[in-house]
Design brief:
- By secondary structure, this protein is an alpha/beta fold.
- The protein is built from 13 helices and ten strands.
- The protein has helices spanning 17-24, 31-42, 57-66, 127-131, 139-153, 174-184, 201-208, 225-231, 234-237, 240-249, 272-281, 309-321, 346-357, and strands at residues 73-77, 86-91, 97-105, 108-112, 160-164, 193-197, 215-219, 258-264, 287-293, 326-328.
- The protein has a ten-stranded mixed beta sheet, with helices on one face.
- α11 packs parallel to α12 (309-321).
- It is elongated and about 70 Å long.
- The model is unreliable at 1-7, 332-338 and 345-358 (pLDDT under 50).
- It binds S-adenosyl-L-homocysteine (SAH) and iron/sulfur cluster.
- Residues 125-126, 165, 169, 196-198, 219, 221, 261, 263, 292, 294-295, 341-342 line the site of S-adenosyl-L-homocysteine.
- S-adenosyl-L-homocysteine (SAH) binds next to β6 and β8.
């Protein structure tokens, strides 16, 4: 059966602002109509030309003949977890499945987006990594996740944060990520967007050269090279000392720190001495640590356990005493396994089990 490619016909959300104007120019005039269409897309995030009510009907029909504005199709939204977060499962044009997360956080709301339909990086503590590589998402597939959640929850854009911490490694999908950011920037400021990476050095360097940088979060997860290699095989390709050197050169933005993510695994990297080693590793960086207690999953190695609360507290206290700012992600969506960055567990596990049983 032929695979329906998501780019066929051309999805206008796959184009950055300049390319969008160029694609519309032969069909749309005068110029103010182009602006109207851009506003319907980039500010309102509509997914059909019919929604563009101030654009003449005829022109809407012409546009619909040539282009699409389709978003991923939502197939399931989980009930809110104890903290109000909800996981949104969607299918793409080729049948791939992805997840996004809506996370209310007091006055503000974070929307966590997937950047790939899987992940080839293969961190051993990560469910997305366990299921393996998946293709790069197109800009329309990333923007579609964002606008769908924003519409559903009617969150004003000035109260939104966007985090690329869902499925996949955003810096291995660099060009599409940049197009997505360029489209988001008129409504969401760069300082409200965070890109989380496992440490893809060429991608970090490319981001550093970009004048409208989003916030950077780095998944360090271990206090030394040996242990990082054990749980993050990418460390052999992009060694920890080189990564730290690149981060130290990363241009400092005013009032913006790099976030160091650190998954806490009981008995592996959660001792007070590990906190001291981590503080030493990141010394000289303008950074804060986000400690993430490991979320267990049946697909992950059974030795991996979430530390007891007392051990988490000890680790955090030791970091604080070493002069490092720390936040702990305690329970965001834990009970629905929706915690951003640990996605695509249940659905696919069930699918596989069902196929095996058939
Ligand atoms: N690929 C990017 C972004 C997605 S992962 C990256 O690795 O940074 C987002 C975050 O979720 C990472 O910090 C990762 O370390 C964390 N994570 C993945 N699996 C986890 C698990 N089982 N428990 C706790 N955190 C996890
Ligand atoms: Fe990929 Fe990030 Fe998971 Fe590692 S933690 S496998 S980089 S999604």
């Amino acid at each position: 059966m032929p695979v329906t490619m998501p780019s066929d016909p051309l999805n206008l959300y796959d184009l950055g602002p300049a390319a969008l104007d160029a694609a519309l120019a032969p069909v749309v005039s005068p110029l103010f109509r182009v602006k109207q269409i851009r506003e319907w897309m980039h500010v309102r995030g509509v997914d059909s030309f019919d929604a563009m009510t101030n654009v003449p009907k005829e022109l809407r029909a012409q546009l619909a003949q040539r282009f699409t504005l389709a978003f991923p199709q939502v197939v399931e939204v989980t009930e809110p977890a104890n903290d109000g977060s909800r996981k949104v499962l969607s299918t793409l044009g080729d049948g791939s499945r992805i997840e996004s997360v809506y996370m209310p956080m007091g006055e503000r709301t974070s929307i966590c987006l997937s950047s790939q339909a899987g992940c080839a990086v293969g961190c051993t503590f990560c469910v997305t990594g366990f299921f393996g590589a998946g293709r790069n998402l197109t800009p329309s597939e990333m923007l579609g996740q964002f606008f769908t959640i924003q519409h559903e929850h009617q969150v004003p854009s000035e109260l939104l944060n966007v985090v690329f911490m869902g499925m996949g490694e955003p810096l291995l999908n660099f060009d599409h990520l940049m197009t997505t950011l360029d489209t988001l920037y008129p409504t969401i400021a760069p300082k409200r967007i965070t890109v989380s990476t496992s440490g893809i050095i060429p991608g970090i360097e490319a981001l550093a050269a970009y004048d409208r940088r989003p916030n950077l979060a780095i998944s360090i997860n271990a206090p030394d090279r040996k242990r990082r290699e054990e749980i993050m095989p990418i460390t052999t390709k992009y060694p920890l000392d080189e990564l730290m050197a690149v981060l130290k050169r990363y241009p400092a933005d005013k009032h913006r720190e790099i976030t160091i993510e650190y998954v806490l695994l009981a008995g592996f990297n959660d001792a007070p001495s590990d906190a001291v080693a981590l503080a030493r590793l990141i010394r000289g960086l303008d950074a804060k640590v986000n400690a993430i207690p490991f979320n267990a999953d049946p697909n992950l190695p059974s030795w991996m356990k979430r530390p007891a609360d007392a051990a988490i507290d000890r680790f955090v206290d030791t970091l604080v005493h070493s002069g490092v700012g720390v936040t702990v992600r305690r329970s965001k969506g834990r009970d629905i396994a929706a915690a951003c960055g640990q996605l695509r567990g249940k659905e696919i596990a069930t699918g596989r089990a069902a196929r095996r049983g058939a």
